[in-house]
Amino acid sequence: MLKIKNLHAAIEGKEILKGINLEINPGEVHAIMGPNGSGKSTLSSVIAGKEEFEMTAGEIIFQNEDLTDLDPEERAHKGIFLSFQYPVEIPGVSVTNFMKASINAHRKSQGLDDMPANEMLKLIREKSELLEIDRKFLSRSLNQGFSGGEKKRNEIFQMAMLNPKLAILDETDSGLDIDALKVVANGVNKLRSSENAVLLITHYQRLLDYIVPDVVHVMVDGKIVKSGPKELAYELEEKGYDWLKPEQV
């Protein structure tokens, strides 16, 4: 589904990613862990096409198509979803209206008419029930006054509604207590299928107790320095990252 070859990227002339190679197949969950400043969030931003990051070398191939020249919205229409670490507030735009606009923009990109209102309501009802979301929540302004847990649950609701091929969750566990973490993880697990894939970016092994990855990658100083099964996360919890610094690999 996703193949990244020798990816280099910079922001304001400073090189952040220094040769990333990564392959993700349909049905897989991959986790990327690493210390602060190692380039994890930069990688998610570059895959999603955020314009402040300059891709200086390499390839990002998504479902056999090179993404290099595509805008963020074009990548989204092709099935890439990025859940933000710090979701923005949009006063005056309800969760429901935001989702209607998102889904219809996606349909328009495929040459389809807007989703009929009854179908939209049915989909909203189905996904909100799946994720145990109170219907009152859907009429609130997007993320305005939301707790950390509510913001993250809303991101997973957006993911459920849009049904992406590749979901990138950038530190979705950041700032969540254990109950909110379980709710978010449960939502992600319910949406996993053989047709989609998930890339988790996290500092903490605890998320991986609830969303079990097929592969764990460790990023240090802009490079993936080690990959392994889920047990690698426990090793990192125990030892930290110093034993994986590039000069020791």
TrEMBL record:
NCBIfam families: sufC (TIGR01978). One of its GO terms (molecular function) is ATP hydrolysis activity. It comes from the Bacteria. Keywords: ATP-binding, Nucleotide-binding. InterPro entries: AAA+_ATPase, ABC_transporter-like_ATP-bd, FeS-cluster_ATPase_SufC, P-loop_NTPase. Pfam families: ABC_tran. Belongs to the ABC transporter superfamily. Ycf16 family. It comes from Antarcticibacterium arcticum. Residues 2-246 form the ABC transporter domain. Signal peptide: none annotated. This is Fe-S cluster assembly ATPase SufC.
